[in-house]
What does this fold into?
Amino acid sequence: MRPVDPRLLRHAGAARGYLAVTAGLGLLGTVLILAQAGLLATALADAARGIGIGALAGTLAWLAVVLAGRAAAAAGSETAALRAAGEVKSGLRRRLSAHVLRLGPAWLGGQQAGEITTLATKGLDGLDAYFARYLPQLVLAVVVPVAVLIRIAFADWISALIIVATLPLIPVFGVLIGWHTRAQTQRQWQLLALLGGHFLDVVAGLPTLKLFGRSRAQAEVIEEVTTAYRKATMTTLRVAFLSALVLEVTAALATALVAVEIGLRLLYGHVGYQTALVVLLLTPEAYLPLRNLGGQFHASTEGMTAARRAFEILDTPLPVPVTPAAAGDEVDLSREDIALRAVTFSYPGRGRPALDEVSLTIRPGEQIILTGPNGAGKSSLLALLLGFATPASGTITAGSVETASIPADRWRSQLAWVPQHPHLFTATIAENIALGQPGARREDVVAAAGLAGADDFIRRLPRGYDTVLAEGGRSLSAGQRQKLALARAFLRDAPVLLLDEPTAHLDPASADRVLAALGGPLADRTVILVTHRPPAQLGRPARMLTLDHGRLAGLGDGSEAPARALTEVRIG
It folds into this structure.
């Protein structure tokens, strides 16, 4: 493990001012250490010669000023370092969140959401120890021993040689122990990430676990992982304490060696009393920063391990290039066709492609009903249209422009999406509906809720549209959450609606109401409706397609009865 992670320093641009202050105060503290030793040696030597307290008042006053200055410099250094840590953590969290969002659900689906949550919270909090204690101590470990050695060399070169010979033992032992600590810390972090991810999954699925009587089994799994994490933490602490003991013993023996030789030479009159005091007072200061550095290194390893994981995520390439194209400014999905030409898409680690050379043209204002069994590729097709995934081969164009050349934000501004499991935030119902259309008027929010069949149940709530929802909308039924997600999509001023099983949790009357809205007030929008079964009634004529094993296997229109067998037609 490197003493300083250059990637962390590159991400510390906003905190460089604080780090400079920390380094400056460290240098000031070094000067004050030398001044303190000189003043204290002078005062003790004068007192030994019988000089009265009155004559020592000036020296003692300056000594008090130096001690106060050391305390102020140490406090200021830690304050500046903590502010630097706050800036770095805030910047890393913003970059991490933005990058994960740009990677999209396709990438996130293969990760543990709990592990990323633990990383962005508890994990990056460990950087406090790195910036507030380890980095300042690293500066002191470089500056203080050199300054002390120079001062001791002017006073007594023999003692300086002994310190030069023994001082490297501390970093050598520190490095040897650090290699072992790194492996222990990585194991500790992996167990913490596993515990956080598993616990989040268990909490989210607790009703299902209770229903099937599996909650006790999961509690035992959590207990097992918690026990493993506790053991790993205790092992890491044991290594840290043992390393501190080794460094303390090494420093104590080296200091004792200097003390013995300076004492013997003082006894035989080969060195002056004041000189001996200066050497004895400064020798521990030469070893102290290196001893402290070892301890702070162990405290900072958790934060550095978490930062490395954050950098791994930040280094993950984005699935969609965001190279702006001049023609991308002119793409208008209310007038342009969306065309998929021989598009193939595969998930990593799966032998069979999710979509296999799919070709399809989506015309403006058209309604497409996309059906097929589980795993047929319906959601994968929506992920490609949303830009959450990139085709392995083939192209997707809007008009004459490839969607890969259109910036993702600009492309998605023309899409409204209702996923199978929509998320609601801890905010009012009105704010949740207006999420996709910031600044929307209340009457527009109410109108969108009416189209989705949500207005009736919202008005029955104690505070109506101003009712604050719990995280994820847990206080609502699945059907009510689905209606709010539909209202959010209907309110969004987007020419294309992508609806993934929009009526799965709705009663027949509510489902008919939504389909009627698609054929009435929303008839000018392009709609791609993914469902396992074609709806019994359609709000307007629709083209019906069937995906089977990643291939388009059926083609029809809304004038045909849904139960009618579709003719096998390969589009491509």
In short: Residues 6-314 form a domain with the ABC transporter transmembrane region fold fold (CATH 1.20.1560.10). The first strand starts at residue 338 and ends at 345.
